[in-house]
Structure formats: C-alpha cells, structure tokens
Write a structure and sequence with these properties.
By secondary structure, the chain is an alpha+beta fold. The protein has helices at residues 2-34, 105-133, 139-164, 210-213; strands at 44-50, 52-56, 59-67, 71-75, 80-85, 92-93, 98-103, 167-169, 174-179, 186-187, 192-197, 201-209, 221-226, 229-241, 250-258, 270-276, 282-288, 300-305, 308-313, 315-320, 323-328, 335-339, 350-355. The termini are far apart. Residues 205-276 form the CusB-like beta-barrel domain.
C-alpha cells in the first residue's frame, strides 16, 4: 500500500513538470516560426541588359512637367463689405469681367456730405474775397478759406475714386484656382479675394544636353505627349533657349503649349517632349526603361556584378522609345537588371537567367 501511495504522489508531481516542458517546447516552436528566414544565400533569378551606346536618328524625346506662370490675383480696389461675389473654384472668367461688388454706401454718404461742405466753403471763400476787397478782413482769412475749400474738394475726389472702384474685376482670363473671401466679408484696399490662372497657355521646361541644343531654335515646333492621354498629341513651340548651360552641360529650353482643344492639359502633368532633329546620327549611352526600379522621375537601377547586385542612382537624359539616356551612373558593358527587381535589395545574390 505504501509503495502505491508513493507512485501516485510521484505521478501527481510529474504532471505539472510535463505540462511546463510541453509549454516550453511549444513556445520555442512559435518563436522559431516568427524568426525571419535567412535568404541571404538564395540567389534571385533575374534578367539583365547590357549597357551600350545606341544610335539615335531623327528625333529625341525629353521629359518635362507642365507649368503655368500666368497667375493673377483679384484684389479689392477699395475698402468695404463685399456685397456680391459670383465666382467659385473652377469658374471661368474673362479679362475685365466684373465678378462682384463692394458696398460703397458709406462712401456715397460721405461724398454727399463733402459736396454740401464744398457748396458752403465756396460761398465762404467768395465772401472772404469781397470782404478783403473792402478791407473788412485780412489776407490770411482768404487763404484759410481757400485751403479749406481745396481740401474738401480733394476729399470728394478721393471718395469718387473709391466709389468708382466698387466693382471687383478680373485682371486676366482663366480659371479661378483659389478663393479667399466670400460675400458679406469686409475687405480693405489691396485685400486678395481670389486667384485666377490662365490655363489656355501652358509651358514646359526641358533640360537639353549640349549635343542636341544646337539643333533647337526659337519658334521650332515639338510634339507633346502624356501617359494621361496616350491617344492625344499636342504641339508646343520653343520660345526660349538658354545661352548658358549648367554644370552638367545641359541647357534650359522652354516651350509654350496652346491648351484650347477639346482635351485639356493640366499644370503639373508629366509629359514627353519630342524634338525632330536633322538626319544626323548621334550615339548615346542608353538602357531599357524597364531597368528603372522607381520610374523615370527617380532613376535607380540594380547593377549585376559577380553574382550580386548593387543599387545605383542615375542621372538620365533624353528618351527614345523604350530606352532612356544615361548621363552618369553607368558605363558601357555593365549589366543592369530589367526583370526581377522586386525581390532585390542592396547586395542581394542574383542568378542570370537571360541576357538581352
């Protein structure tokens, strides 16, 4: 009996220990499952392209962003409460169009009082001159009367000017892109009420390398395209070619683009500007745009060398179809990854499955 009791006690004592061991094992398994899998030794399969010189013949495309510098403010020309304002964001307005009014009732009342004073002061002035002629007053009295009359006339003229400026007028044609005041608010002279932007003419600033700038002349036409409107082609006209290049030997070229068609471009839109050059062949260091991991706006590529990849920032230039010029960052013969970048990071191992 005693031995059975001892065995029972041992079993009861071992059960918590077994449970603790089981829980510890499960915890370790969960923690192991949470640990990131080390894939540093796993080679990512990639497709690469060889960096090379490509011959460009006929036309070259440059990236640009549309801008507008024809922005005007609509300001109050006199002080008072805005009695009416007939614009909203997006409203189209014409140059010289009356878009609102400022209540000038107070100024009109002041003008009436000033005109009454002028009548009285004119009479006082005339009387002073008569008295002076009869030696019944002195010259100072006449001078003072003339001064008071002239001052009141000046006050009346200022009030008439303020009343004439009660209309709120748009200084240019365009679209209302900002409205800061509404009817019922009080404004002082010069207070900005709204902003009007002329979107009928947009501009594109292009950075052109020195090897191409000599082919571009003021008045030259260029074709404008955008991924936002893949089926549309717009025309731009060169209105400025910088006489001075930057540190990278690029020249600023500005184009004006008429934006009055049925399809409207927008300021800030990323576009492609295609210049047509004389039939003179030129060679550029170019890569396929598929190699750019973050697109044309932030040109970064992975360069393959000895089984690993290096992330590299580029300075790019003109575009030609599916290819883009590389100004700095790559050399002829290097291999850039064009497929499989999504799984890569700096220093990742890679295995080439295809060379284009």
């Amino acid at each position: 009996m005693k031995s059975k009791r001892i065995i029972t006690i041992l079993i009861i004592a071992l059960i918590p220990i077994a449970i603790i061991i089981r829980l510890t094992v499960n915890k370790n398994k969960l923690e192991d499952a949470k640990k990131p899998v080390d894939r540093s030794n796993v080679s990512i399969k990639v497709t690469v392209d060889t960096v090379s010189l490509k011959t460009v013949d006929g036309s070259v495309t440059q990236p640009a962003t549309l801008i507008t510098d024809n922005v005007a403010t609509i300001a109050a020309e006199t002080a008072g409460k805005i009695s009416s304002l007939s614009i909203e964001l997006g409203s189209s307005v014409r140059k010289g169009q009356v878009i609102g009014h400022i209540d000038v009732t107070e100024n009109q009342q002041k003008l009436q009082a000033a005109e009454l004073s002028i009548t009285k002061l004119t009479s006082d002035y005339e009387r002073s001159k008569v008295l002076l002629a009869g030696s019944a007053t002195n010259a100072n009295a006449v001078t003072d009367a003339k001064y008071e009359l002239d001052a009141k006339k000046l006050e009346a003229a200022q009030l008439r000017t303020q009343i004439s400026r009660a209309n709120i007028i748009s200084p240019s044609s365009g679209v209302i892109t900002d409205r800061q005041k509404i009817a019922g608010e009080y404004v002082t002279t010069g207070t900005i009420i709204a902003t009007v932007t002329n979107v009928n003419t947009l501009k594109a600033n292009v950075s052109v390398p020195e090897s191409q700038v000599f082919y571009i002349k003021t008045g030259q036409k260029a074709i404008i395209t955008s991924d936002a409107y893949p089926a549309e082609r717009f025309t731009g006209s060169v209105n400025y070619v910088s006489p001075k290049g930057d540190d990278n030997h690029n020249y600023a070229v500005q184009l004006a683009i008429t934006n009055t068609g049925s399809v409207q471009l927008k300021a800030g839109l990323y576009v492609h500007v295609e210049f047509t050059y004389p039939k003179a062949k030129q060679s550029f260091l170019m890569i396929n745009k598929n190699a750019l991991t973050e697109g044309v706006k932030n040109p970064v590529v992975f360069v393959y060398k000895n089984g690993v990849v290096e992330k590299r920032k580029l300075v790019t230039g003109s575009e030609q179809g599916d290819f883009i010029e590389v100004k700095t960052g790559l050399s002829v013969g290097e291999l850039v990854v064009t497929n499989g970048q999504i799984n890569l990071s700096e220093g990742s191992k890679a295995q080439i499955i295809k060379v284009k």
